[in-house]
Each structure stands twice: as structure tokens, then as C-alpha cells.
Amino acid sequence: MAEIINVSAIAKTEKEKLKSRILTYKAEGKPVPTLATVLVGEDPGSVYYLEMQKKNLEALGGTMLKITLAEDTSEEDLLSMIGELNGDDKVHGIMVLFPLPKHINEERVAESISKDKDVDGVNPINIGLLASTSGGVAPCTPSSVVEILKNIHGELKGKHAVIIGRSNIVGKPLIQLLLREHMTVTVCHSRTSNLPMMARSGEILISAMGRPLMIDEKYVSEGATVIDVGTSELDGKIVGDCDLESVLQKAAYATKVPGGVGTLTTTILIRTLLDLYDESFRK
Ligand code: NAP
Fold this sequence. Notes:
Layout: E1 3-4, H1 7-27, E2 34-40, H2 44-60, E3 63-69, H3 75-87, E4 93-96, H4 106-112, H5 124-132, H6 140-153, E5 160-164, H7 171-180, E6 184-188, H8 195-200, E7 204-207, E8 225-228, E9 232-234, E10 237-239, H9 244-247, E11 253-254, H10 262-282
The structure holds NADP nicotinamide-adenine-dinucleotide phosphate.
């Protein structure tokens, strides 16, 4: 019987662990874990996301320093603000909301965030460390996918996953995270030939394209687990890459959108914040 994965329950369990970690810090007389966020402009989606993130973090006992800069802020001023946050001992993680206005070079901004406070793994040093060592910081979306897979399957070693999408923020870091789990990984993209056949070759299918409802049962092998990372707007509604009803004709497990991967990402971001926090006390 096909099952829709209860990602909210996974998030709830993870939140309990994070809450107890923060209570331990408090008992040890350590400072409150603090995430600094920097938004340039007033993109409504980002404003809403930050409000949710703040609520979640505060509910667990952490705190968020929300910095909003005007849309016409210069790159120099943004870099100087990040420099200040890098040097501030009270700040344990920094997240700059992308995309940035066109006059700001995103690569330069990503490089400017201290690798030790880079909570969403955008600094190229962390990207390199993720690929070449057991360290580095992974972005919260691919980390959430791994968390969901571990919850469903326990051991991932030897399983074959097909990822559709090779972006820097989802597909590429996910390759590294799945390889760390000793999985076999196939990566597909817009130039892949015979995508349905490639997709069916995996016992796990992860779609991160942003192509509304494109994935149906033709892409799914019997008994597969399907993780839908895509979020798009279609006729005023948020939908994923998967046509869930069709996918569930073949899959054993699948996530839905909304209420899937996105339900876990803010929690995983807080877990990364706490990992960076712990690391800062080891130095
Ligand atoms: P992106 O940078 O646009 O990358 C999309 C990837 O999908 C690219 O690698 C592209 O291939 C591939 N692709 C596009 N159309 C395809 C097709 N018809 N067949 C095969 N491959 C195709 O997007 P992203 O930032 O990775 O985000 C992907 C989706 O995940 C979006 O819907 C986004 O909103 C969502 N997302 C969700 C969360 C969450 O928390 N749930 C977080 C981040 C992103 P090429 O490389 O060849 O162009």
C-alpha cells in the first residue's frame, strides 16, 4: 500500500532533539544560539520565510537577528555588514537571502560569509569540503532529503538513487550527501536522454526541477521512494514536480507538496546552526 511520507512528524522529532540541545547549552551557562539573517529588499516570499524561521528558532530557545537592507544597498555596504557579523561572537550562523538584486555579485557575497558561520553552505570552501572531506556545511534542502530517506529506509548503503536536477543549491550537494551514505547515484538534468527510463532505474527518485506535475508513474519503478523537492505555482496553487496520484500507483513512499520536504528545511537549518555553534566552542 503506497504511503505519503509524514514529513511533519520527522520535523517534530528533530525539533524535540534540538530543543533539548539548546536547554543543555542554557544549563551550561552558554550563550543563546543566534542566527543572523540578511535580506536585501522586501521580497514577500523571503519576508514570510524569515518570519517562519524566526518563530521556529525562538520556539526551540534560539534567537534570530533579522537584518533588512534597502533594495539599493551597495555591494560594498552589504559586504561590510557581513564582515561585522563574521566578527561578532554573539552570532553563530549567517544566512543571506538569495537571489540578491542584480547590482550585487552573489558569488562575492557567498565567499564573504565566514565558512564557520555559513549556515546554508554557500561559501565555496564549504562546497569544496563537502565534496572532498567528511566535513563542510550542506545546504538545508538536500540535508532534509537525506533525513527523510534515513527515516524511511534506515540504512541507505548500496541503494540506487536517481536525482533529477543538478543545481548548486539542491542537486550537486545532494550527490555528495548520498555518496557519503554509500549510495549509488545517477544524476539527470534537462539534457538527459530518455528521462523516464533513467528515472525508473532508481529505487529512490528525487526530483528537484521546478517543473509542475511533470513526474508521473512512467518515471517511477515499482515500490520506489519518491522525494519531490520541486515547488512551483500552478493556477494560483503551490505544486511539486510530481503528479502524486499517478506516482502513488507505482511508488511505495512519496512526499507531497506542500507539506513535504519544505516542512523540514527550517528545522534542518537550525540543526546546522547548532552544529556550527558546537564547533565554535571546540576552537
Ligand atoms: P534550478 O536551479 O532551476 O535547477 C533545476 C534543475 O532541474 C536543473 O539542473 C535543470 O537542468 C533541471 N531540469 C529543469 N527542467 C528539466 C527537465 N524538463 N528535465 C530534466 N531536468 C530538468 O532549481 P533549484 O534551485 O535546484 O530548485 C529546484 C526546485 O526545487 C524548484 O522548484 C525550487 O522551487 C525547489 N526548491 C525547493 C526547496 C524546498 O525547501 N522544498 C528548496 C530549494 C528549491 P539543467 O541543469 O540542464 O538546466
